[in-house]
Input
Amino acid sequence: MMSAPDRSKYPELVDGKPVVDLDSEKYVKLWHGPQHPGITGNMSLELTLCGDEVVECKTHVGYLHRGFEKLMERRTWIQNFPVVCRIAVPEPAFNEYLYAAGLEELAGIEPPERAQWIRTLNLEMMRLASFLMWLGGQAGAFGNGTIGQWTVTHRDYMLDLFEEMTGGRIYHMYMLPGGVRSGLPDGFEERLEAVLKRVEKLLGEIELVLLHNAVFKVRTVGLGIIDKEMIDRYGITGPNQRACGIARDVRKDDPYLVYDQLDFEVVTGTASDVYERTLVRYGEMYQCIDLIRQILERMPQDGPFHEPLPNVLHWKIPPGETYVKAECTRGEKGYYIVSDGSLYPRRICIRGPSYTHAFPVMEKMAIGTDIADIAGLMVSLHTYPPEIER
Amino acid sequence: MKQLFERLRPLFAVTDFKQQRADLAFMHIPKDYAEMLIRHLRDHEGFSHLVFFTAVDYIEDGIFRLIYMLHNYETKDTLGVHVDLSRTEAVMTSIHPLWEQAALYQRELKEMFGIDFPGSPGVDEGFMLEGWDEIPPMRREFDTRAYSEKTFFPREGRKKTDPRAHMQEQLYPNEGEK
Output
């Protein structure tokens, strides 16, 4: 029988927090980021180490703070479209959709049915592209850098399609209030299907080299377990929540756009560790492909894709407030919009899932983790700093 | 949600109920009862999810309006609780014992609006601004353009040229102004 490890040299825990005396020379302070391949974007973790083990973690943001929410208060409603899409670089479309949906609700605009389908298609394509980027990071954090090159290549195929559909590869400014800026180009469906087949083939290969890889499994099974009790206490949403068996998904629970007309089940897991979160997101990538195919099959082929708007240069939104939300790759994303009836927003507050995942959740989970696993743990929480420091 | 409001009215001094959508409503409560109401909503009405917590500056009325956005996963209802604070006495009871992420929102509100939450962990540490010595930047009276011009321009060694004159000089240096 194995004896319990000797932890007498580790700091004493008081109220779940270690008492660290840096002058004792037993500990090392280490900055993990902002320039580090294992950090998710422009942020950093201030780690205190005892041997290889993290005993304290503090998240720092502010490296790319541009004051988006403040900027938006000084711009007209329509001028904010180039701003909102920059609030999550790998998946700007969710910001565009939510900002447009919030304005539509306050202004009483109903987008045409075809626009709703095209928006859903755009969001699911965005989800797949974002997951491809995450998958590369998750594999790379455990030493499988080649997988990152494959996934980024395939994300680029998706970006080619976005360029064709919207004119922009990263920032599209495609979903405006009232609908979308254009319909689908001729032959787009066939080209999209060809890319989906390539992504499907890639996922099959990555399953063999990553999910069945002994090193990846040994390092990720049992790492970073999120207890069920933490979910509401920390405001955890998205795959991080679903990996512990809670089947909540905004697309299913509060359907928006045309999600109520699509057939899908919420992907869940049980073990709630890094490996399980990888499996859940993996399942959601296949689900994305399936949803895109359903949309292409069922969406109306003609009809208007945009409702006429008043002169947007002088557009005053009626006074009011609302909160609209959507399921992005990381969980619940929402826009709280307040209008005072003027040409400018009174206040816009963006609710990004990374806010809680990168701060209280990461700071708690890092404690007791081996320094070598910190990057993988962080990527498994899937955080994007711009939505923290809006 | 109207039923919820009617149920809460005798218990707490809630007012100004507004149903924005079937699944979204707002109500107002005085500052002194807010923490009790929010605790009640979490523990007895199923609003277990703190969606976000922020503020709106109504400078013309001399108030900050706090918005506690709560969600009930069972009924799928979202409720925004409004609390008005005087701008001159912007202090509020902390809700960090209720949700772990609340302390972070409160840290942000302290830095960005200057609203204090005594006892909230790390509330004085700052959220993201380093070396900030201006008024809290999300307050309405903070003038972003004036700050930018004062801080970033003009500064020594930086020149400003009129775009038209510059292009004229670059492309047609010998033709003179037309």
Q: What stands out?
A: Chain B has one domain: 2-129. The domain at 2-129 of chain B is CATH 3.30.460.80 (Beta Polymerase; domain 2). Chain B has five helices and five strands. Strands of chain B lie at 15-21, 24-28, 49-58, 63-72, 77-86.
